[in-house]
Amino acid sequence: MKEQKYSRAELMICVAARLFCDGTTAFIGTGIPMLASMLAMKTHAPNLVPIFEFGGVGAILDDLPRAVGEARTFHRAVAASGICDIMETAQRGFIDYGFLGGAQIDPYGNLNSTVIGRHGRPKVRLPGSGGGNDVGSLCWVTIAIMQHDRRRFVPEVDFITTPGYLSGPGAREEAGLPERGGPINVVSTLGLMDFDREPGGTCRMRLVATHPGVSVEEVLENTAFDLPVADEVCVNEPPSGEELRLLREEIDPEGLYI
Amino acid sequence: MNVLQSGQGELIQPPDLEGFREWNRIEKSRRLDDKLMSEEEAIARFVSDGCYIGTELYGTVRCPMSLAREVVRQGKKDLRVCGQGVLELDLWLAAGLVRKLDVTYIGLEVYGVSSALRRAVESGQVESCVEWSNGAIAWRMKATAMGVPFIPVRAMLGSDTLKYSAAKVVEDPFTGMKLCLLPALILDVGLIHVHRADRHGNAQIEGISGFAAEMARASKRLIVSAEEIVPTDEIRAAPDRTVIPYYLVDAVVHAPFGSYPGEMAYLYGRDEPAIRHWVEASRTDEGAQAYLEEQVYGVEDHQAYLSLVGEQRLAHVQEQRERRTS
Question: Are B185 and B147 contacting, i.e. CB atoms less than 8 angstroms apart?
Answer without folding.
Answer: no
